[in-house]
Amino acid sequence: MKLIVNADDFGYTRAVTYGIADAFKNGIVTSTTMMCNSPHVAHAVDLAKQNPDLGVGVHLVLTSGTPISENVSSLTDTNGSFYSQNNVFDHAKPEDIEREWTAQIERFLSTGLNPTHLDSHHNVHEHAIALPIAIALAEKYGLPLRRAMNVPNLDVAYNTVKRTTFMMRAFYGEQVSYETLEGQLRNVSVLDKNETVEINCHPAYIDPDLISKSSYVDTRLKEYTILTSDRIKNYVNELGIELINYRML
């Protein structure tokens, strides 16, 4: 059984990026995805290059900050900011999503880094409007794509696009605890040795920028503490789980 532990939101703020990098160096995080519309991209790129064994992909954004491409008016409110996750698909046109996500991928490529995979902020790529676009972009760029849902018919839609066998999301919000993560790890450990799982997470340090932009703040530091603990690292070893990133699929 092989496990990818992916930390979302690389580049969101400087403290988030530092927290993710340290969760890789000191814990079980193996992978992360960069928010390429963030003003802190350059800092994230620097840390990615300092940690070449950390898998870094693209965290496709539709619901945080502002677009980096022009002429995508269906994605933004009157202030020019992305709509919230609650109403973005009341407005978004597929052609604007494709244009903006392509721009984000191209910005990542312009840094000289090679992306390991694609996923999305707030998992918006699982929406019926966005999923075909995400799959098409994964095919275009030859990249794996995060499994949107654990349903059999999804494999037909993904076609040849690489993905994990399962996606586990319980380690979030009020469910962030040692017990939740250990339960997920036990579920991974009983799988066939050739099956792969992603557990996504949001470890971070906290800075004023994060507090001003996100409602998910203190729990990120709690995630960091658990993911870097000897208790969890030893448990992964006891279960014989192989930690990988998307480059190894």
UniProtKB/TrEMBL annotation:
Keyword entries, A-Z: Carbohydrate metabolism, Hydrolase, Magnesium, Metal-binding
Cofactor or coenzyme needed: Mg(2+)
The organism of origin for this protein: Ornithinibacillus bavariensis
Biological role: Probably catalyzes the deacetylation of acetylated carbohydrates an important step in the degradation of oligosaccharides.
EC number: 3.5.1.-
Similarity remark: Belongs to the YdjC deacetylase family.
SUPFAM superfamilies xref list: Glycoside hydrolase/deacetylase
A single GO BP: polysaccharide catabolic process
Protein name: Carbohydrate deacetylase
A molecular function (GO) term: deacetylase activity
Self-association state and partner proteins as the record states: Homodimer.
Residues annotated as binding Mg(2+): H59, H121
